[in-house]
């Protein structure tokens, strides 16, 4: 059962991480979250495609949102492991959508994966596997 919904996650991110913007939580359920990035010119690399660091940020933020949805507003949950495969170039001018699912949620670690697609395209543009460390409760 999710502890935080989409608007709560967005409000938490705005308060704790104002440097990240352009993201919308579209889905929160027991399996994970869907996070959308409104792609703009600042996300593009030469050649007119979305940059790798932008896609990594989307995957990492989707995993963070999935963890928060289950444990509540814990700012110090952090990435401990990340692996991303870039599979195809996403087209410019389309939002990116990350579907993140939690594969395991333990007391101190959360493991999940994220599949990133360009809006309107079925093909996966990137796949990420991530582990988060959950701090002990005070």
UniProtKB/TrEMBL annotation:
Taxonomic lineage of this organism?
A: Bacteria, Pseudomonadati, Pseudomonadota, Alphaproteobacteria, Rhodobacterales
Q: Which GO terms describe its molecular function?
A: acyl-CoA hydrolase activity
Name the SUPFAM superfamilies for this protein: Thioesterase/thiol ester dehydrase-isomerase (SSF54637)
Pfam families for this protein: 4HBT
Mind listing the UniProt keywords for this protein, alphabetically?
Hydrolase
Q: Residue ranges of the Thioesterase domain?
A: 47-121
Organism superkingdom: Bacteria
Q: List the CDD domains hit by this protein, alphabetically.
A: PaaI_thioesterase (cd03443)
Q: What is this protein called?
A: Thioesterase
What NCBIfam families does the record point to?
Answer: unchar_dom_1
Gene3D superfamilies (alphabetical): Hotdog Thioesterase
Note whether Cell cycle occurs among the keywords: no
């Amino acid at each position: 059962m999710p502890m935080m919904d989409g608007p709560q996650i967005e409000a938490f991110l705005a308060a704790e991480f104002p440097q990240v913007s352009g993201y919308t939580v579209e889905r929160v359920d027991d399996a994970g979250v869907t996070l959308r990035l409104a792609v703009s010119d600042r996300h593009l690399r030469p050649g007119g495609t979305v940059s790798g660091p932008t896609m990594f940020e989307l995957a990492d933020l989707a995993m963070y949102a999935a963890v928060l949805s289950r444990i509540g507003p814990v700012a110090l949950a952090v990435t401990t492991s990340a692996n991303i495969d870039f599979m195809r170039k996403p087209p410019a001018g389309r939002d990116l959508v990350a579907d993140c699912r939690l594969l395991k949620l333990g007391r101190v670690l959360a493991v999940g994966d994220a599949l990133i697609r360009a809006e309107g395209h079925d093909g996966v543009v990137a796949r990420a596997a991530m582990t988060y460390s959950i701090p002990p409760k005070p």
